[in-house]
Amino acid sequence: MEGALLYKIRPIIDQALREDIGRGDITTEALVPSDAWGTAILKAKDEGIFCGEAICYGVFDVLCPQVQVKVLVRDGEQIAKGDVCAQLQGPAWAILMGERVLLNFIQHLSGISTKTARLKALIADYPCTLVETRKTLPGLRLLQKYAVRVGGGGNHRLGLDDAVMIKDNHSVAVGSITEAVRLARSRVPFTAKIEVETKEPEQVREALDAGADIIMLDNMSPALMEEMVKFIDGRALVEASGSVNEENIVKVAQCGVDIISVGALTHSVKALDISLDLKIANGH
Fold first, then answer.
1. Beta-sheet pairing, 164-166 with 237-241
2. Active site residue 149
3. Which end of the chain is flanked by fewer CB atoms within 10 Å, N or C?
4. For residue range 67-101, what is the model confidence (pLDDT) as tens digits?
């Protein structure tokens, strides 16, 4: 994980720990001596793509730096059922308090990476980029978008300040796609790309004539998408979006689009099953 991103996720981890621990872990504090020493392993209970190196280190860096962490797999590596992903050693209370936050992050991020890799493999023979959308969990966007990259995908805009995305409601607000592109072009830096969401051929033609850099084909049939790609003919990047899944992504890629965006990579992904097994050491 890049250093800048690792720096940015520390507050996310801190907030998650504060939320879970609250005023204190009354179960652990009642049952586990403060000087008890523990060892633990993170074990995969399913196969997939691992994502969470920085989480393993970050959780205990925030909670208790005495816990020694050794991550055995790198982000982006394939893991199989039974594989040990990481080893922990340190105060048992800290391992127990950090367990759920640690697993929640790693299971979720690994699920995103796994789904991304699965979809990416289906379209490996086509020259298009698979990306997520802004349909991310509040506060977790950086991590979720990182997990998509770990799985072999690319990233759509990080936020509203990244690029101009003119949706149907924007066009309605100013009267037309043409006027929306004109206003955006006159008011944003020349380095900013302008993308226009379209749902029908007339909108595609208008967006292209207005000078859009990227044209999104939203919820179009494969036949219509292929027709629009031929019409655009390289004069703008073409993004396909809307209800893309494992069953239809190959048909979408065959249309010749440059980018395929899939909201389900982040908004409804299944977590990868990973467990933490703790043992109490006799001494340390």
1. unpaired
2. no
3. C
4. 999 999 999 999 999 999 999 999 999 999 999 99
**Rounded to an integer, what is the distance from CA 185 to the centroid of its chain?**
30
CA distance 263 to 110: 16
Q: How far is CA 70 from CA 1, 55, 73, 143, 178, in A?
A: 15, 12, 9, 21, 56
Token readout for 68 is 């020694």
Catalytic residue among 157, 167, 199, 251: 167
- What is the pTM (predicted TM-score) of this model? 0.94
Q: Which amino acid is at 94?
A: A
Neighbours of 157 (CB within 10 A): 16
Domain with CATH 3.90.1170.20 in the chain: 3-114+270-281
The CATH code of domain 120-267 reads: 3.20.20.70
Active site residue 118: no
Identify the active-site residue in 99, 132, 197, 226.
Answer: 197
Q: Which fold would CATH assign to domain 3-114+270-281?
A: Aldehyde Oxidoreductase; domain 3 (3.90.1170)
Choice among 100, 141, 182, 193 that is catalytic: 100
